[in-house]
Amino acid sequence: MITTDTHQKWLTLLVILSGLLARLLLSPNFLLVPDEANYWQWSRYLALGYHDHPPMLAWTIWLSTTLLGQSEFAVRLPTVLGSAIFSLYLSGLAGRLFSQRCALHTALICQLLLLINGSALIATPDGLLLPCWAAACYHGYRAVSSRTAAQWLLTGCWFGLGMLSKYTMLLFLPCLFFAILAIREYRTSLASCWPWLGLLISAFFFSPVLFWNAENHWATFRHVLYQGGLENKALFTLAYVGDFLGSQALLLSPLLFLLLLAAWCRPRLRAALPPAKAGYLLWMSLPGFVVFLLLSLHVRIYGNWPAPVYACGIILVAALWAPGGPLAPARSRTWKLTLATAAVITLPVLIQVVYPLLPLPLSLDRTARETAGWDALGTEVARTLAAMPRPEETFIFGLRYQYASELAFYTPGRPRTVSINRWARPNVYDFWFDDQMLLGQDGVGIFTWKPMAPLLAERFTSVEPLEEISLKRVSPWFGSQEVQKLYLFRGHGFKGGIRWQPRDQGDIRATGLQTEEKK
User: Which of 189, 250, 256, 269 has the smallest CB count inside 10 Å?
Assistant: First the structure.
């Protein structure tokens, strides 16, 4: 006879597999957005580290595209699978903490959140960070509650893999540390050698990034410090707080976000749950959110940055409000409305990515701006390249790394492309190309701001007149629309000047690469 728990376990697995199948079907049906194309480009230059992030996403994209070929499906497969692993671990933790019914509702809400779907369908480091965080939380809880060596070592492994995915994973350490200190039942855990051995294992996993940075002027850490606002002279500002809170409410869905704030801020609500379990979920989520909230008083926080800190918060909300929880059935309508709100926000966005269902103006339709026309652009650039006097000695470039990467993926033959960063910001292309590799060659490139043409012309012996290229989409509401206007540049005899040059030599992002370029 099948028990209720077994039935709900199978339902939970069915929910997760259904979400996985839906994302697998959606993933090949829209063009790569610029950041995805950039990460795919990383996979063609395999390294122990990269300028912006650790290497895990590049490594997994390389493996996927090597096995399955170069396609949007293969590029996105690692993060699509990552979302399923995230849901499995998170629902597993919910089941271990509370009940299989809580696990089922945790899995259900995970399939409906825009934050989770976006991290899965757009191949970014967050899509690999999330499963690592959820797995580390799962094994971390088992480690502090059962004090078994294997669980501590598994926690260290997943923490190390998370650090190879994105540096936000570092927040896991203080969260777990303060959870252990705050919960009396867990405090003796630190007296064992196993937590420290787990930490040693994670350091071993992360060591490739340290080796790469040591050889490359600590470029990644400079970038992270800059992104964190180290050089922002305004110590305190309210300019970014509203944007931060609004983006979090949208990505989590407004009602879930409000319920999570209530669960964090109202001890009376959490008192309905076993104290140690509620405390673990609180300490594994709230401190990370506070860190980003405080940072938003100093610098702009991108909506996806806090994503992993909500993992245990989602379980906390499901444990309190979902059917079977202490606040149900009195507030079961609230949970149903939470699921419905998440679905109403997420499903139209997913459909809009594939087909312009909503009559949104282009200024509000980010999916159109980031996915339309790249294949047509690649075809046009290939035609121009073939017409150049020396096509075999002509390089393709963009004045932004995003355009260079889109051209690399969508130009027939997927040629090597260059980003001329001199006037932009440092990025990974500075580590792949230098002037000596391109001097004297001709160039075909793309940029968006017409006044850049004279500056770019100074980098070549001679240039040809600009051509306008219009990237378009066809909307059932508005007909043919121009998504972007670009300028096609053709130059002869490159004179150098490819790498970023800081305006201020005190810029924390400046490394020895700029000095090498000047020589």
Answer: 250
Residue count of the chain, please give it: 519
Tokens of 163: 């650090």
| Cis upstream peptide for 348 (omega within 30°) | no
Nearest to 242 by CA among 192, 191, 300, 197: 300
CB distance 17 to 23 below 8 Å:
no
3-state secondary structure of 322: coil
Q: What amino acid occupies position 431?
A: F
- Which residues contact residue 178 at a Cβ distance below 8 angstroms, ignoring those fewer than 6 apart? 283, 287
Strand 479-494 with 467-475, pairing: antiparallel
Q: What is the pLDDT of residue 517?
A: 56
Mean pLDDT of the chain: 93
**Percentages (nearest 5) of helix, strand, coil residues in the chain:** 65, 10, 30
Q: What is the pTM of this model?
A: 0.95
d(CA 380, CA 391): 14
Structure tokens at 257: 């976000």
Task: Provide the b/e sequence for 481-503 (b: ≥16 CB within 10 Å).
Answer: bebbebbbbbbbebeebbbbeee
Q: Are 493 and 464 in contact (CB under 8 A)?
A: no
CA distance 215 to 512: 11
Alpha carbon of 326 to those of 98, 258, 312, 314, 330: distances in Å?
Answer: 11, 18, 18, 16, 9
Average pLDDT score over residue span 167-187? 96
Residue closest to 489 by CA, chosen among 381, 392, 391: 381
Considering the chain, what percentage of its residues have pLDDT values greater than 70?
97
Alpha-carbon distance 374 to 406, whole Å? 7
Question: Which stretches within 266-365 are classed as H helix?
Answer: 267-270, 275-283, 286-295, 311-321, 332-354
Rg (CA), the chain: 25
Q: Determine what percent of the chain is predicted with pLDDT higher than 90.
A: 81
Asked if residues 119 and 252 have their Cβ atoms less than 8 Å apart, the reply is: no
Question: Which among 463, 462, 470 is positioned nearest to 486, based on CA atoms?
Answer: 470
Residues 6+ apart with CB under 8 A from 505: none
Q: Phi and psi (nearest 5°) for 183?
A: -105, 115
Measured distance CA(496)–CA(437) in Å, rounded: 9
User: According to the model, what pLDDT value does residue 403 have?
Assistant: 96
